[in-house]
Amino acid sequence: MSLEVHVLGTSSARPAQGRSVSGSIVETPEGMFVVDCGEGFQNRLVKHRSQMKNYAGRRLKMSKVSAILLTHGHLDHTWGVLPWMQTMALDGRKDKLWVIGPTTSEVIDALLGSETEPEVTPSDLVIQYDMWMDLGATSEALGYEVQWVLGDGERWVNMNDGSQIPLPQPMKKVKISAHSTQHTVPSCAWRISLGERKGKFDRESSKHLPDDVKASLAAGNDVEYNGDVLKATDFRSDTIPGLSVIISGDTAEQAIDSDCDLLIHEATFLQSHADIANEHLHSTAAGAARTAVECGANHLALTHYSARLDRHDESLAEAREIHGSVVALSDGDRLVLNDDLSLTHLIKSEEGWTQQV
Ligand SMILES: [Zn+2]
């Protein structure tokens, strides 16, 4: 079991320095999530999929994408949503797709029936939702079911029927959760985690038992043996939490209220421009590293660089002074979070990927 992240854009605000705007695929054993989907997402996806086929020898099936998770409404994170949904319609998609993102509490109040007119900022997702509907993003027009959900972190509204619902869980064993972050518009980080795994069977304390008793205990059944009841749970260590990744979206430096194994965090600026980062509610590479330490992340991956950064060595150096395991992402890179919690960084090259050692 592993988690893999395909990084399709690492630029902040606009394409620059050969980088494109935000968009990632998180691949789990049960299916995929797309986290953010900026302008031109599907162009990069087409290229990435053919590279995966040619050099990694496997296909990324779009029917396996069960949800688009948006971190906020800025267009460099959302403008690719509708064109890509329309392409999936042309490709004959039939599977349900969730599109989930944050808005303000005032908008949620209004959606749930409050009379007060909410103040809505230009790029709020509720405006984009209305626009997308007008442009044909309905289940009827697309030919596959689309469930649109907006929330304020606490309350979630199914836009299809206006009802309040718990945060949807598009997959059975993989869990998603939204964690508020601080930006100029409502924003959140998305945490994606695999289900808990069974603890290890204790071979040492069961070694005196006959094989059939051992097999039964290992399968989770309590067994009567020599007049005693042996409890299966006594022969297995506690459950092991599933692998987890958090993707920050755009945010000022701030604690994220959850732990994770891998944190993918924006690093728009360097510490030397901390004042501009604060002013625009973005983070520095050092700030991203401090957040990674705070949420106990084993690994930190930097992304979302300002156009003023033509390389990311300084970002990397700055973050590595604070956190022991940091990589700097480029467009097309892949990150594999392995079962043993190690991280493999596959760096995009002309032909396929090279593994960083
Ligand atoms: Zn951004």
What can you tell me about this protein's structure?
Helix content is 25%, strand content 25%. Helix 10 (285-294) runs parallel beside helix 11 (313-320). It has eleven helices and 19 strands. With 357 residues, it is of the alpha/beta class. The chain folds into two domains: 3-195 and 241-249 and 325-355, 4-Layer Sandwich (Metallo-beta-lactamase, Chain A), CATH 3.60.15.10; 203-235, no CATH class.
**CATH C-level category of the largest domain:** Alpha Beta
Q: Judging by the overall fold, what is the CATH architecture of the largest domain?
A: 4-Layer Sandwich
Proportion of helical residues = 10-25%
* CATH fold node name of the largest domain: Metallo-beta-lactamase, Chain A
CATH homologous superfamily of the largest domain? Answer: Ribonuclease Z/Hydroxyacylglutathione hydrolase-like
Number of discrete domains: 2
Number of strands: 19
- Uncertain runs are none
The distinct bound ligands, ions and cofactors come out as:
zinc ion
- How many individual helices? 11
Structural class: alpha/beta
Amount of beta strand: 25-35%
Q: Please, what is the average pLDDT? A: 91
**Quick one: overall form?**
globular
Strands in their spatial order, largest beta sheet? 8-7-6-5-4-3-2-1-17-18-19
Secondary structure topology:
Blueprint: E1 3-7, E2 23-28, E3 31-37, H1 41-56, E4 65-69, H2 75-78, H3 81-90, E5 97-102, H4 105-111, H5 125-134, H6 139-142, E6 146-151, E7 156-158, E8 163-165, E9 175-181, E10 187-193, H7 203-206, H8 211-218, E11 223-225, E12 228-230, E13 244-247, E14 262-266, H9 274-280, H10 285-294, E15 299-303, H11 313-320, E16 326-328, E17 334-337, E18 343-348, E19 353-355
Parallel strand pairs: 3-4, 4-5, 5-6, 13-14, 14-15, 15-16
Antiparallel strand pairs: 1-2, 1-17, 2-3, 6-7, 7-8, 9-10, 10-13, 11-12, 17-18, 18-19
Bound molecules: zinc ion.
